[in-house]
Design a protein that fits this description.
The complex is a heterodimer of chains A (about 270) and B (about 100). Chain A has about 270 residues and is mostly helical. Chain A has helices spanning about 5-25, 35-55, 60-80, 85-110, 115-145, 155-175, 180-200, 205-230, 230-255, 260-265. Chain B is built from 4 helices and no strands. Classes of the chains: A mainly alpha (about 270), B mainly alpha (about 100).
């Protein structure tokens, strides 16, 4: 039984959105960065409490248990991780966020009533899957599971373009009320694109790719907001997508690289740095 | 809400996102990236809504997996960003020179 009427929950989501904007601004300056991060966490807490009090939810004990499991996994790892291993942890956390968005979109497909909701579902699936798989590969490179060097093989570029084209075709089928397995295909093909996109990126460029995939996850979350009709997800996801894009470009510039050079440099024969 | 209102909000949020980080100093690139990573963990509320409407056990299981993943993103993201900034304390040092 919802405790709050929709007006109150909308206002509280607005407060959370303002917290996220203030968090980004705080994080842009050394003096206010730590406080900014805490304001962001406060906004997230307000939003999560609001969803419990304002929505008609079943399975609440299960949901609380799942939150406890997620916290029990992530909190100790984030507390204990060495500074040198922080980039791969951020990559992994980013990847699971993209994965969560993709799963939500898949489950919402049977409830999608119009074509633009199905379009949002396809975008969430594709971008979320690319971000998840790409982040797993960046994690593996930084963790030493895979070679940190650019991994290239003949026909890689062609293969990636081919997979992407098939994924878009399957996505178009889903938009025109195609079957559930077409959506699963979009998810699987998106995972393949993510792997193929990041394999050719060399070690020194990996942090920039983490930032790019972070912006991708933001876009996936924004698209999932369209799927669920949730304004806070749209605002938060779009903020991250937009600021992440600017940040990715700034990081590339600071290292004297270009984003397209990093992503596609290996395809043109010239290996990427590292 | 109708699609046009949602699209309006999205376009405005794009500009806010561009503007709000446009003057970030390069020493803060990594913590800012980590902080934005934490913020998109708010996809958790989407996962909670989907799990809260699930009737089929399979749907519930997948939705709960999404809840676990999103919680890890949200909680881990804010904690690791705080740790990065704790280590900073005014030093001009980058965490991603790996």
């Amino acid at each position: 039984m919802p405790l709050f009427p929709p007006v109150v929950s909308s206002l509280l989501y607005l407060v959370a959105a303002v917290c996220f904007i203030l968090a980004l601004r705080g994080l842009s300056s050394p003096k206010t960065a730590r406080r900014g991060n805490l304001i962001g966490a406060l906004g997230a807490l307000i939003a999560v409490v609001t969803v419990f009090l304002a929505s008609r939810l079943e399975n609440i004990p299960w949901i609380l248990a799942a939150i406890a499991v997620g916290t029990a996994i992530a909190w100790p790892i984030a507390r204990r991780v060495q500074m040198t291993q922080m980039p791969q942890l951020v990559a992994m956390l980013n990847g699971v966020g993209g994965g969560a968005a993709a799963l939500i979109a898949l489950l919402e497909l049977p409830h999608a009533a119009d074509w633009w909701t199905r379009l949002a579902i396809v975008l969430t699936l594709l971008i979320g899957a690319i971000s998840f798989a790409g982040s797993v590969i960046t994690f593996s490179k930084l963790q030493g599971i895979l070679s940190a060097k650019a991994i290239v093989f003949p026909g890689l570029a062609l293969l990636m373009v081919g997979v992407l084209v098939v994924a878009v075709a399957a996505g178009a089928w889903v938009v025109t009320s195609g079957p559930f397995f077409a959506a699963v295909a979009v998810l699987v093909l998106g995972l393949a694109v993510g792997v193929l996109l990041v394999l050719p990126v060399g070690g020194a460029d990996v942090p920039i790719v983490i930032s790019l995939l972070n912006a991708f996850t933001g876009l996936a979350v924004a698209a999932s907001g369209f799927v669920l009709g949730n304004v806070l997800l749209i605002i938060a996801g779009t903020l991250v997508g937009a600021s992440g894009t600017i940040l990715t470009r700034a990081m590339a510039q600071a290292m004297g690289r270009s984003v397209s050079g990093i992503l596609f440099g290996a395809f043109k024969g010239g290996s990427t740095a590292g | 809400m109708d699609p046009i209102s949602l699209a309006t909000i999205t376009v405005l949020a794009v500009f806010v996102g561009f503007e709000v980080v446009s003057k970030v100093s390069s020493t803060l690139h990594t913590p800012l990236m980590s902080g934005t990573n934490a913020i998109h963990g708010i996809v958790l509320i989407g996962a909670i809504i989907v799990a809260g409407q699930a009737h089929d056990p399979w749907v519930l299981a997948v939705a709960l997996l999404a809840v676990v993943l999103a919680t890890a993103n949200l909680v881990g993201g804010f904690v690791v960003t705080d740790r990065m900034l704790e280590m900073f304390k005014g030093r001009a040092k980058k965490g991603t020179d790996a």
